[in-house]
Amino acid sequence: xxxxxxxxxxxxxxxxxxxxxxxxxxxxxxxxxxxxxxxxxxxxxxxxxxxxxxxxxxxxxxxxxxxxxxxxxxxxxxxxxxxxxxxxxxxxxxxxxxxxxxxxxxxxxxxxxxxxxxxxxxxxxxxxxxxxxxxxxxxxxxxxxxxxxxxxxxxxxxxxxxxxxxxxxxxxxxxxxxxxxxxxxxxxxxxxxxxxxxxxxxxxxxxxxxxxxxxxxxxxxxxxxxxxxxxxxxxxxxxxxxxx
Length: 244
Description:
This protein is an alpha/beta fold. The chain folds into two domains: 2-158 and 225-243, 3-Layer(aba) Sandwich (Rossmann fold); 160-222, no CATH class. It is built from seven helices and six strands; from the N terminus they run βαββααβββαααα. Helix 1 (13-20) links the parallel strand 1 and strand 2. The protein starts with a strand and ends with a helix. The relative contact order is 0.16.
């Protein structure tokens, strides 16, 4: 059994992809559920791998717009916390997902293969670039990713965690305090959520019942597309099997 620790799991889209390929996922703390990665210390030698995507707001190209408007990204650079957890857990391998502009993780004792890949390379319509960094303890290993020969003739823009946000949420702070949205905005948010599910490759019956519609949009929009996650999980499993 491949026991894998998932850091910054969010609602677990990358976890789902790895579970489909036979990995047993143990989810670490996440801000979404009131967790604090800075207080988390994984046990050494218990996990076969570590996966995760630290919040990417501070590296995203949109962060310049946020700062221009007098704000700061919600999260700072949490890649050092990912690196720390890998050092403490000492797994044979790790896989980190980030935006293309993010730095490559550095952990003593691990060689890293880092690359940028587009979700469209897996036959999907959504145009979404992500940086993946695969660390292997010892000699550098290169993941072999299966991609399609031809991209989809359809094109869709990258999913975004802010797609379900109402116009009032970025305007007057007094308006942001309202506890309910007008019906037309609620309906629109539900439509956005269904669109995001399709875009991210999730089944029609996927839902996050305890969440508000806006929170569902944010959580799903921030996740890893299922097609991309499955390709990464498959490549990691093949690497492990070849190294056994």
